[in-house]
Amino acid sequence: ERADKARVRQLINICTDQQTLARGLAISQKYPFVHTVAATTPHDVLLEGESFFPLVERHAIAGELIAIGETGLDYFYEHSPKEIQQQFLRRYLQLALRV
Fold first, then answer.
1. Among 95, 73, 94, CA closest to 84
2. Is the sign of the CA dihedral 27, 38, 76, 78 positive or negative?
3. How far is the C-alpha of 77 from the C-alpha of 98, rounded, in Å?
4. What pLDDT digit, counting tens, does each position of 40-81 carry?
């Protein structure tokens, strides 16, 4: 309602884990102006990348995502090793190109 009153016509909801993706998809079903985007953050790819990527892939292929993100490289904190971050960045970029 606040978005409508502020004349916001489109929203992007970034989902970075299984729980936020499930909620995000439900929100976009109820409110078609809310668009879902998903990926594993660079910080979380070590712990969640392998389990979350197939879900993102499935929903992307089904046309339920409008973009792939939030992904990338973050070497400042190094919560995940650089090599793992690079691997998942490549995987998400390849997925984005496929869909």
1. 73
2. positive
3. 31
4. 999 999 999 999 999 999 999 999 999 999 999 999 988 999
